[in-house]
Each structure stands twice: as structure tokens, then as C-alpha cells.
Design goal:
With 357 residues, the chain is α/β, with parallel strands linked by helices. It has seven helices and 15 strands. The strands form two sheets. Strands 3, 4, 5, 8, 9, 10, 11, 12 and 13 form a nine-stranded mixed beta sheet that branches. It has a six-stranded mixed beta sheet with strand order 6-2-1-7-15-14, with helices on one face. The radius of gyration is 20 Å and the shape is globular. The chain starts with a strand and ends with a helix. The relative contact order is 0.20.
Length: 357
């Protein structure tokens, strides 16, 4: 029976472990410094919105495209997962085309994106439906995830399939194999996210923090709203989404590449709230930010990787097979199942080559 260690218990690590655990032959241990329930600046997943707003180009859409069916199934049939359907309204301002946020959202802002045939009820907004500041827009059915419910749900599904969890800190990837419950793993899967930049044996300098600041409020927006950019700075964005099952409404945000600051910027928080109320007046019934009922402020660091996500296998020193799954930036949830399917294929390849030795 193959033994597998998954390093990391964010959405990528948990989803990968879950898909691997569907093979009854595999014995899987998750090894992680941070687990669901923790809030730490190194641990990105709890801070995410999270939603499904595809940003991949058509030439590289496998991960996001293959994730939608599972998120939709969970929203439809598994209420305890903490996911619900929500209309997503996307506004585009032509002047944002060359901005950091405009580049990030390039595919999302298109009126003919690849995902128009994937998500339900995609349509282009008519001019009469656009605010004065927008040049074009679209609307479609998306999902919003209550991460405080969804991450524990993933853990529960892993446990049901016999996965074990081991809270531990490793300084080098070659330490992971010995932390399997059996004492030795045949394959290690690296889902360390931001920590891939610091982990010995990986030390990926292409991984950088991309700071996101948010405000969580009790107010109801009625839908999910996103705009291509703001007038407050190249790396500030504006979006609103309501988490499922009483999870509150997320107001964002920022997209600050290379910024590792973990503390909330009060001035930024005020700008985020002002932009949200302007874009979505129904949040406050037409009143100002004083009518927002704030639950808390937060900062998360997206694990952005220059050159794109790393999903590949390699044999490291000592002959240990490692499969990598990190560097998702801001699309970890909406690519989670697709990426994990890719990892399962690579694990099978690694085990096959190992059996031939």
C-alpha cells in the first residue's frame, strides 16, 4: 500500500488529500504547521473570500474549468460544506486595462470569456444596467464559500476516508516523508503555499506575498460585485461577496505584490468601505460607511508565484519523489479540484516509476 504525505492544510493541501484518499490503496498523512481553526498570516486559506471568478487565460484554464462542477455540486447538494450560489456582477472600466488589477482580471473582464459556457446564466450587461463609471459588464451565477465552514468540512471528509493529520513544523522537504504514520512515505506532496519560498529543498524565490486587506461586515449586498480597478491606487481593488451560512460579507480589497505587512492599515480600510458602499449602495440602504456593521478587519497574503502555479513532480536528493502544488495567488479555491486532479495524476506517475525500480 503506497504511503503519501501531504504537506500543508490549506485548501490546496486538504483538497489534494481528499482526492488522493478516494483511492483505498493509499495511506495518507497530512503534515502541517497550521490547521483549520488557526488564524496566522502564514496561513492564507482562512482569509480568502472565497468565490469563483475565473482569471486564467483560455490557453491555461484546466484547473479552474475542472473545479466548477465540484463547487456547484457542493452548493447544490451539500449544505454543510458552507457554499452557496450567488450572482456575480463584474464591471469593467477601460482605463484599468494596463493597471495591476486590470491585468489580473483580464479574462474575467472579457465579454466573451472561456467560462461563459461553464457557469450558468452568463450574459453581458446592457448599457442601462451599468453604473456611470463602467464601460462594460457581465453577470453570471457563481458561488461564495464560507471558509470557516468549508475548511473543517474538507478535514471531516479526509478523516472519513482514513486520512490522519499531524501538526508539525518542517524546515526541509526531506523531513516530511518520515512524518507519515508508518514512518516512511513513498511520495510527498508539497502544498505549502507561501512557505514554499522558505522551505529547505524548495526555496522557490518566485513565490511572493500578495497582500490582501478586507473588512467583514454583517450587511447584505444582494449579489457579488467586482470592478476592474479603482481611482485609489494601482494595487487597490473593489469587490463585495456574501459568504454562505451566516459567514458575513467580505469587502475588499488590495492586490499588493511583494508586500508582507500583516497589520491592518486603517486608512486603507476606510477606502475599502467607501468603495464598497459606492459600488453597492444596497449594503447600507443608500447611507454612508457609518451604516456598515463591522465584524472584523483582516489581512491575508496570497501565495503568488511569478511564472504561474507549480504543479509538477521531481525526485529530490536521496531519491524521494515530491509532487508540487503551490503558487496559486488569489485563485486557490476556484482551482482547487482541478489542481488536485493534476496532482493525483502525477502521484500515480511517481508511484508507477517507483515500482519499476
Amino acid at each position: 500500500m503506497p504511503n503519501i504525505v501531504v504537506v500543508g492544510a490549506g485548501v490546496s493541501g486538504l483538497t489534494t488529500a481528499l482526492l488522493l484518499s478516494k483511492n483505498p490503496e493509499y495511506k495518507i498523512t497530512i503534515v502541517a504547521k497550521h490547521m483549520p481553526g488557526d488564524y496566522d498570516i502564514e496561513y492564507t486559506s482562512p482569509w480568502a473570500g472565497a468565490n469563483y471568478l475565473p482569471v486564467s487565460p483560455a490557453s491555461d484554464n484546466r484547473w479552474e474549468k475542472n473545479t466548477w462542477p465540484e463547487l456547484a455540486r457542493l452548493a447544490q447538494d451539500v449544505p454543510e460544506a458552507g457554499i452557496h450560489f450567488q450572482d456575480a456582477v463584474v464591471y469593467n472600466r477601460n482605463k484599468d486595462a494596463q493597471a495591476t488589477t486590470g491585468q489580473w482580471f483580464n479574462e474575467l473582464l472579457s465579454t466573451k470569456p472561456w467560462f461563459a459556457s461553464v457557469v450558468p446564466k452568463f450574459r453581458v450587461l446592457s448599457p442601462s444596467e451599468l453604473p456611470p463609471s463602467a464601460d462594460s459588464g457581465t453577470v453570471f451565477t457563481s458561488v461564495c464559500i464560507n471558509t470557516a465552514l468549508y475548511l473543517p468540512y474538507l478535514v471531516s471528509q479526509c478523516l472519513k476516508n482514513g486520512v490522519t493529520l499531524n501538526r508539525a513544523i518542517i524546515s526541509h522537504i526531506n523531513e516530511a516523508a518520515s512524518l507519515h504514520t508508518s514512518g516512511k512515505a513513498d511520495v510527498v506532496v508539497n502544498c505549502t503555499g507561501l512557505l514554499a519560498s522558505k522551505l529547505g529543498g524548495v526555496m522557490d524565490k518566485n513565490v511572493i506575498a500578495c497582500r490582501g486587506q478586507i473588512v467583514i461586515v454583517r450587511n447584505t449586498p444582494g449579489a457579488m460585485f467586482t470592478v476592474s480597478g479603482t481611482d485609489d491606487g494601482d494595487d487597490e481593488v473593489s469587490y463585495v461577496m456574501q459568504r454562505a451560512a451566516g459567514g458575513g460579507t467580505i469587502l475588499g480589497g488590495t492586490y499588493q505584490k511583494g508586500n508582507w505587512e500583516s497589520q491592518v492599515d486603517p486608512n486603507q480600510a476606510i477606502r475599502i468601505m467607501k468603495r464598497a458602499v459606492e459600488m453597492c449602495p444596497q449594503l447600507t440602504g443608500g447611507k454612508g460607511i457609518e451604516a456598515l456593521s463591522v465584524i472584523r478587519h483582516g489581512v491575508g497574503l496570497r501565495p503568488l508565484r511569478n511564472g504561474g502555479v507549480r504543479i509538477e513532480k521531481e525526485r529530490i536528493e536521496g531519491g524521494q519523489w515530491v509532487v508540487h502544488n503551490y503558487g496559486h495567488g488569489g485563485w486557490g479555491y476556484q482551482g482547487s479540484y482541478g489542481c488536485s486532479e493534476g496532482v493525483v495524476e502525477l502521484v500515480e506517475e511517481a508511484l508507477s516509476s517507483k515500482s519499476k525500480l
